[in-house]
Specification:
four-stranded antiparallel β-sheet, about 170 residues
């Protein structure tokens, strides 16, 4: 059993590494720092029924490694075009693309981004740092309880080949 777990982890790590070798021809690209930040924040914080179902499926265990890889890729893919390669490696390496759903799944609620306000903290030609003020709406799965959450975090974007990408986000601890 221990050997099977080790093999699965190695295959998953190999697959993630292999995905970095692929072509980025379909890279969406963002010409403004604010655009990529807003898209990233909405992608990261919004947790829907599909996100929770995928989280439960991934954490339930798999008999088939191909299904695990496929579902993990579904969780990861939404972030790929928004982030630098190194930031993407960090977020996928610590499993935050689907672990971000843990609390919502455990406590039975969905999350929606109500508002985002950006405040530029630092800038140069290739890098910008922002504070963002976010308001989230947590709605219980049954729909009978709604809670507003406000928070302030920092995010860094880097210009790569003319497009802005998230290179550091303190929302997920990296």
């Amino acid at each position: 059993m221990k050997r099977l777990t080790t093999i699965c982890c190695l295959l998953l790590a190999g697959f993630v590494m292999f995905s970095f070798v692929g072509c980025r021809a379909n890279d969406k690209g963002y010409s403004s720092a604010e655009g990529v930040i807003t898209e990233y924040i909405n992608t990261y914080y919004t947790i829907t029924k599909d996100d929770i179902e995928l989280y439960k499926k991934i954490t339930a265990g798999y008999k088939n490694i191909q299904d695990l890889v496929s579902d993990t890729n579904k969780a990861n893919e939404r972030f790929k075009n928004l982030m630098t390669d190194s930031a993407y490696a960090k977020i996928t390496g610590n499993l935050m693309t689907y672990r971000r759903c843990k609390e919502a799944s455990d406590n039975g609620y969905y999350v929606e981004v109500k508002s985002v306000k950006l405040e530029k903290y630092f800038e140069n030609a290739e890098r910008e740092v922002y504070y963002y003020y976010i308001e989230l709406v947590q709605t219980s799965i049954s729909g009978n309880e709604v809670k507003n959450i406000k928070d302030r975090k920092q995010i860094t974007v880097t210009k790569i080949n003319g497009n802005w990408k998230v290179s550091n986000s303190y929302a997920n601890g990296y």
